[in-house]
Specification:
Length: about 190
């Protein structure tokens, strides 16, 4: 069953990537006024990092399950795991951006300057770059899965893009957990 016309996979990938990244950069760059997001109790806003680390761990697990499932030929299980991973990613990003806008910017690093410069910033930078790079690759793999019947997917680049997306996702989510640990556990 075809959900996305095949000839629309590339243009949709570009459009979704541009819109998604524009939203992310607008929120991260302080271009979204606080009045644009609904208010929430302080306890909820403060709980978002803790919730997001749990979401990250769950996403790592679902990506691993999906990767293992497809290697064993369990296509239906793979599909469920990867769609779940995408939902977790979208939830994580929504909560993260909401908190960013609601609090007026990123959280300051509370630890020593040397850890900030030589551990925290490089880890954060790699995490962010991989998350950004992942978005178009992820959309392309997802849209291909929606555009082709399962029997035809092996003749497409879905598997190659899927491996790249999964690898970027796994590393980015793992580094996000390290960033959380530096911000909320170590200091």
């Amino acid at each position: 069953m075809e959900y996305v016309p095949r000839e629309r996979v590339r243009p949709l990938t570009v459009a979704l990537s541009v819109v998604s990244l524009a939203i992310v950069f607008a929120a991260a760059g302080g271009r979204v006024p606080r009045s644009m997001v609904p208010g929430a109790p302080e306890w909820f806003i403060e709980s978002i990092p803790h919730l997001n680390v749990a979401i990250s761990a769950a996403a790592i697990a679902t990506i691993a399950v999906g990767w293992r499932a497809i290697r064993r030929g369990r296509v239906d299980r793979h599909r469920v795991a990867m769609v779940t991973s995408f939902g977790l990613f979208a939830t994580f990003l929504t909560l993260y951006l909401y908190r960013l806008v609601a609090t007026g910017g990123p959280q300051e690093f509370p630890g020593p300057e040397t850890v900030y410069q030589f551990v925290y910033l490089p880890t954060l930078a790699i995490h962010i770059l991989l998350a950004i790079a992942c978005i178009p690759v992820l959309y392309y793999a997802l849209l291909q899965a929606l555009a082709y019947p399962i029997a035809e997917l092996p003749r497409t680049s879905h598997a190659r893009f899927g491996r790249i997306a999964a690898t970027l996702w796994l590393i980015s989510f793992s580094l996000g957990i390290v960033v959380y640990g530096l911000l909320h556990v170590a200091y």
